Amino acid sequence: MDSNQIKTVVVAGASGLIGSALMELLIKDVSVNRLIVLTRRPLNFEHPKVKSILVDFKKLQTISESVKNADILYCCIGTTIKSAGSKEAFRAVDYEIPLHLAELAAKAGISKFIAISSLGADPESNNFYLKTKGEMERDIDGQFQFRKLAFVRPSMLLGPRKEFRLGERVGQFFMVIFSFLMVGRFSRFKPIHDFTVAKSMISISNSLNNQKIYDSSELQWLGR
User: Fold this and answer.
1) What is the pLDDT at residue 166?
2) 76 and 51 Cβ atoms separated by less than 8 Å
3) What distances in angstroms separate CA 205 from CA 66, 114, 147, one per listed residue?
4) 1 domain-assigned
5) pLDDT at 159
6) CATH number of the domain where residue 73 is located
7) Which residue blocks in 111-184 are alpha helix, DSSP H?
8) Counting beta carbons within 10 angstroms of the beta carbon of residue 64, is it exposed (0 to 12), middle (13 to 18) or buried (19 or more)?
9) How many domains does the chain have?
10) Given this model, what pLDDT does residue 58 score?
11) Does the pLDDT at position 164 exceed 70?
């Protein structure tokens, strides 16, 4: 599909930091004719391009006809163990929902699936968060076939989160101050803005290569 062709795009997780930035960019994108947003809560705005579908992410088969033959599904679902309340609840969001979305996309004939993961994702990691992200990547890649499948791995995100996270704010402060030291192989650890990640996801979805993993330094370049 040529990047200039009119597209129907599906976004899951539009209320999050990257998801909301992605939606804003897609609404302005003249190559996107229709934007389907999968959400658990009603959106607080309307736009002629946007169709909002309230969903139970555990029962996505009920909406397969509504997204049939869309061109791209962007999976921006994600939380933290602290926000989820437990490791089990976190895994239900960051592992199970992306797999349900990949299954939905595959069955609905969506040819491109782009998902947010995390820098350091590794199914063999001793860190539960990174292990979960790595297992998500591995199992989607192993179970489903897409013409374009990609996982973006941003480092610490910069942007206006809706919820206040003290530890994250402190981390952002020091990471920004010392980011000039992060060069060469350490450049992937530089904090990255939400819109930079969102722009890079659009760029990746339009690319013709078969690369599946994009770390944060690549996202910085693609989203510039």
Assistant:
1) 46
2) no
3) 21, 7, 10
4) no
5) 64
6) 3.40.50.720
7) 128-143, 166-177
8) middle
9) 1
10) 87
11) no
Q: What tokens were used for 9?
A: 């795009």
| HEC-encoded secondary structure of 34-82 | EEEEEECCCCCCCCCCEEEEECCCCCHHHHHHHHCCCCEEEECCCCCHH
**Residue range 43-83, pLDDT digits in tens:** 888 899 999 999 999 889 889 999 999 999 999 999 989 88
As a residue count, the chain comes to: 224
216 HSE (CA, 13 A, CB side)? 23
Choose among 158, 141, 130: nearest CA to 106. Answer: 141
Nearest alpha-carbon partner for 152 in 193, 114, 98, 184 = 114
Tokens of 106: 């595959």
Structural domain range at position 215: 7-222
Q: Is residue 2 part of a domain?
A: no
Rounded distance, CA 91 to CA 84, Å? Answer: 9
3-state secondary structure of 116: strand
| Segment 73-118, tens digit of pLDDT | 999 999 989 889 999 999 999 999 999 999 999 999 999 999 999 9
Task: Report the Cα 200 to chain-centroid distance in Å.
Answer: 11
